[in-house]
Amino acid sequence: MSLDQSLKRGSRLVRARNVMKRAERIAKLTDEDRWDETKSVLGIPKTKVPKTVAGRKKKKKVKEEEDGDDKK
After folding, report:
1. pLDDT tens, the chain, 72 aa long
2. In sequence order, what are the residues at sequence separation of 6 or more whose Cβ sits closer than 8 angstroms to the Cβ of residue 49?
3. Which of 55, 9, 2, 48 is CA-nearest to residue 29?
4. Neighbours of 64 (CB within 10 A)
5. Which pTM does this prediction carry?
6. Coil, strand, or helix at residue 17?
7. Which residues of 8-33 are buried (b: 16+ CB within 10 A; e: fewer)?
8. What does the alpha-carbon distance between residue 40 and residue 13 come to, in Å, rounded to a whole number?
9. CB of 26 within 8 A of CB of 35?
């Protein structure tokens, strides 16, 4: 029996998450100066999830040898 594409290990990192964990939300609110340490962690205001750009890696340019004399 084969594995479904969604259950393969490599595909987990490719998909965008639509929910942030509590610690991530508090960190984002702290960066935006919307969080105070005296507030309760229950009932945290909603935050937008940052979109990640999943792109292909850029190919490195191959440097050509200036002269063929270096081979000797």
Report:
1. 787 777 776 655 566 678 888 999 999 999 999 998 898 888 888 888 877 666 667 776 666 555 555 555
2. 16, 17, 18, 19, 20
3. 48
4. 5
5. 0.50
6. coil
7. eeeeeeeeeeeebeeeebbebbeeee
8. 31
9. yes
Token reading at 58: 């850029």
Q: What is the DSSP letter of 37?
A: T
Return all residues near 52 (Cβ < 8 A) that are at least 6 apart.
Answer: 16
- What is d(CA 27, CA 44) in angstroms, rounded to the nearest whole number? 12
Q: Which long-range contacts (CB under 8 A, 24 or more apart) does 34-39 make?
A: none
44: exposed, middle or buried (Cβ count in 10 Å: 0-12, 13-18, 19+): middle
What is the C-alpha to C-alpha distance for residues 68 and 72, in angstroms, rounded to an integer? Answer: 8
